[in-house]
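User: I've been trying to design a sequence by hand for this structure and keep getting stuck. Would you show me what you'd pick, starting by listing the structure so we're on the same page?

Assistant: Good idea, let's start from the same input. This is the structure you sent:
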């Protein structure tokens, strides 16, 4: 236990976490040159394609110093704001954190956010400046920023280049010298916290845990405190490049347990494992619940796949505990699930993982957030879905969630960033110059305005330089109305949205125009209308595909032509009564890209 160190890497997206993890693996000879490939810990194709970390990944390394062997457990964490839940889980299993800052870009919003998470958990912070080999690197400027942020001495900050391997030995020695060994009592009752789990189709669910007290042996009977269920530890071991089975694991160690669990509901991330013979009554505290920020419906394209989609979602939830879902049905789309996500990127990744890993073809409805409606009787109703919106005549007021957004950008882009936030109903709370060239802006903004295209627009207007982080603050009274879309007089509930009254007319008009360009022409006219309550606010018509029935009439009386046109008109009217309009998948996502 004295020679064990548990630490994670925290940083903003694209500051070199995964590359640094690769160098640490090579420096400790945890992987042979033959097996090595870049982004070793990013094992999903999606992560490699996008160049981002989506899943935290734990790995054990052995490092020999002065003939003493140290066990280093590293957890590589994501950097994007949508995956901060993964970071909070990793931090709960560590005693120290490597804070990585890009020497060219300096401190970004997510760096600060993840740093506060680590400080709340009393982790020892090791500040590291990465990418010092870049021509645009400014290590001295970045050092001043780090000193201002965490109040350390300049000589404590390590300068490294994860790409070339410069300074990696210094990191390994600092981890041993400055991060404390795990504290706990190996002779006490077993307490181990589950911080992740994965589904193995051959062996059931594998739970990853960190032991806070006591020890666990292969074959022991263990109990999961939250669910109260008991299992045999069929296999335990440590997480190296490949899992390595062990006979016994003790306090401070990070490992995995396989106990033949087949049902995804039986493993809860943040649960405590204890032994059945000498159980601990207390669960480990300090693990936060996930708070979904964005909600959307996910429906199978073929309604027969509903049950298969449910199983796929449960398996995915094991691997990504921040996904929440519950069954719902829609008139337009049949049976599906109402899912809660941490953000738009998270939603996109879940949809893509369902298609790739489980071969599920799904439709995603328009994303929205949760509101609180207060009726005149004084009842408080939660609205997760626009179809839950009560009759406006019974309503007293509606509250919508607000967030506190931190945006760090270059001084040149302050104007456009402010305009964007004010356009999104944001209120400027603070403006701080971190350096002469970098500004931190703090806004209070309604979460519903962030959901659609805010992040993309922010990146565009700041040429990729602005970084964004947010946390929920409270619910505030707002003037909202439900915008409905009607096709030939029928409501399409999957396209309904709750919008601010001031924006409803423009949004309704844009949405009708967008749908007109996306819905294919039929044998009859299709009326696309947007409405608030019973009031129609805009209309577009997709014209029918018509055959020229008068082509054979050359010359002769006009009544002959009129007779043929009337006959065609009756046929079109009859067809309109029986025909139904198929809405293409991209129509549901078009709402997100109304300004493109």
């Amino acid at each position: 236990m004295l020679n064990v160190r548990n630490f994670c890497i925290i940083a903003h997206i694209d500051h070199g976490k995964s590359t640094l993890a690769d160098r640490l693996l090579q420096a400790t000879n945890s992987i042979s040159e033959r097996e090595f490939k870049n982004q070793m810990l990013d094992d999903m194709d999606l992560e490699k394609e996008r160049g981002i970390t989506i899943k935290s990944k734990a790995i054990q390394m052995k490092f020999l110093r002065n003939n003493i062997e140290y066990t280093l457990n590293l957890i590589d964490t994501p950097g994007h704001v949508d995956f901060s839940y993964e970071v909070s889980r990793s931090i709960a299993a560590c005693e120290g954190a490597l804070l990585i800052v890009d020497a060219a870009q300096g401190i970004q919003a997510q760096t600060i956010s993840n740093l506060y998470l680590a400080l709340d958990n009393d982790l020892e912070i090791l500040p590291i400046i990465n990418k010092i080999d870049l021509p645009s690197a400014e290590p001295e400027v970045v050092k001043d920023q780090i000193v201002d942020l965490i109040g350390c001495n300049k000589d404590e900050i390590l300068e490294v280049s994860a790409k070339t391997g410069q300074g990696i030995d210094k990191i390994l020695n600092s981890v041993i010298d400055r991060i404390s060994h795990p504290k706990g009592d190996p002779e006490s009752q077993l307490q181990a916290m589950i911080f992740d789990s994965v589904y193995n189709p051959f062996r059931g669910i594998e739970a990853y845990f960190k032991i806070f007290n006591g020890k666990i042996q292969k074959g022991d009977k263990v109990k999961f405190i939250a669910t109260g269920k008991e299992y045999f530890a069929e296999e335990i071991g440590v997480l190296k490049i490949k899992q390595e089975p062990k006979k016994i694991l003790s306090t401070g160690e990070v490992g995995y347990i396989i106990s033949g669990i087949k049902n995804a509901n039986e493993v809860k991330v943040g649960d405590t494992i204890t032994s059945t013979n000498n159980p601990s009554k207390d669960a480990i505290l300090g693990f936060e619940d996930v708070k979904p920020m964005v909600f959307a419906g996910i429906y199978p394209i073929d309604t027969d796949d509903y049950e298969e989609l449910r199983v796929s979602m449960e398996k995915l939830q094991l691997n990504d505990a921040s996904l929440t879902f519950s069954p719902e049905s829609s008139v337009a789309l049949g049976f599906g699930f109402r899912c809660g996500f941490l953000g738009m990127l998270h939603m996109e990744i879940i949809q893509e993982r369902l298609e790739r890993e489980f071969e599920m073809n799904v439709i995603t409805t328009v994303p929205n957030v949760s509101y609180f409606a207060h009726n005149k009787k004084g009842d408080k109703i939660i609205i997760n879905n626009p179809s839950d919106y009560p009759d406006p005549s019974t309503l007293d007021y509606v509250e919508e969630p607000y967030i506190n957004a931190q945006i760090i950008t270059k001084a040149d882009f302050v104007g456009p960033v402010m305009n964007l936030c004010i356009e999104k109903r944001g209120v400027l709370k603070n403006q701080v110059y971190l350096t002469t060239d970098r500004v931190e802006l703090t806004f209070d903004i309604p979460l519903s305005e962030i959901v659609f295209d805010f992040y993309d627009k922010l990146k565009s207007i700041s040429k990729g330089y602005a970084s964004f982080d947010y946390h929920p603050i409270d619910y505030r009274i707002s003037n909202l109305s439900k915008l409905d879309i009607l096709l030939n007089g029928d409501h399409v509930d999957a396209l309904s949205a709750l919008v601010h009254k001031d924006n409803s007319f423009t949004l309704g008009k844009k949405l009708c125009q967008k749908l007109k360009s996306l819905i294919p022409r039929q044998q009859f006219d299709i009326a696309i209308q947007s409405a608030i309550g019973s009031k129609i606010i805009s209309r577009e018509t997709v014209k029918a595909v018509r055959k020229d029935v008068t082509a054979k009439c050359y010359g002769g009386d006009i009544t002959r032509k009129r007779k043929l046109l009337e006959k065609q008109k009756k046929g079109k009217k009859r067809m309109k009564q029986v025909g139904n309009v198929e809405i293409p998948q991209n129509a549901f996502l078009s709402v997100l890209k109304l300004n493109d």
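That's my pick for every position. To get oriented when you compare it with your attempt: The mean pLDDT is 78. The two ends are 57 Å apart (CA to CA).
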